[in-house]
Amino acid sequence: MTKLSSNKTVRKIRVRGGNFKFRALRLDTGNYSWGSEATTRKTRILDVVYNASNNELVRTQTLVKSAIVQVDAVPFRQWYSQHYGIDLSKKKKVVSGKKEAEEGEAVPADAEKKQSKHVLAKLTARNQNRKLDPHLEDQLASGRLLACISSRPGQCGRADGYVLEGKELEFYQKKIQRKKGKGASAAA
Amino acid sequence: MAEQTERAFLKQPKVFLCGKTSGKGRAPGKRGNRFYKNIGLGFKTPREAIEGTYIDKKCPFTGNVSIRGRILTGTVNCTKMTRTITVRRDYLHFVKKYQRYEKRHSNLSAHVSPCFRVKEGDKVIIGQCRPLSKTVRFNVLKVIPMGAAEGGKKAFTAM
User: What are the backbone angles phi and psi of residue A33, rounded to the nearest 5°?
Assistant: First the structure.
């Protein structure tokens, strides 16, 4: 069983046909893809948060396929600021409800650097179709993204997956909240 | 949605739900992004499968099973299991000593996709697929409701 731990251990096992399987015993990073933006980054896995099959696996922080994990958001933030020129690490100010507030903290990221006209043109073109789901935005600002493991760590030795978006994200967020709510009310 | 009944998020694996450009080049009236396939062998994929919103990974039209091997027909015996039925196949066995036939039957469990509405007594065409559970190796491909065919239905027909 693959545990979340910082000393990475992967064993090579010879299987039928002379082929090899990589049994991951301890992992802490994975290659996670952000589907709607079509980028993939290697990130640290921070926390196992939900498992549809077994709560025990959440408690023991076991990495399995289709476990919901929290993943470091920094590489994705960096990519986003490079691609769109917008810095997501600052939280939106709730006071001013204008749209400018969103873009306001966005611009300072590159205001100091001088950018060529070519680069600026590319950025403005990309920014025209830019849409960012508010749930994702919150997660990116806080530094932790929810992701789902889609590889089988005990077979291929990797814990790769995809960032949760849209309906799936809402579904799992509700599940996690319900569990937290139950735990909190039980303890109280 | 009504169909998210399990603890994990039910979705069709080949459909990417969060694409930003979805819904642009879409013909009006077609809502969801849905995966469905033609199972071949001359079977039409039902409209319910294409337009429905159910998620069933064992459905031959919208899931991950392929139909290959035998195609059999039988009558529906029992529909009490979730998404599966038992199909009863009657046949005659010849006894050499007495030069006569005797009636025999065997039961099969088949998975039935939510796009079909099956009642006991309907005739059903099932196709072989990979093992879906301990006893289920077949999948319902077509339902012929009881009372549908007009001409000459005998009381007992050997299948």
Answer: -110, 140
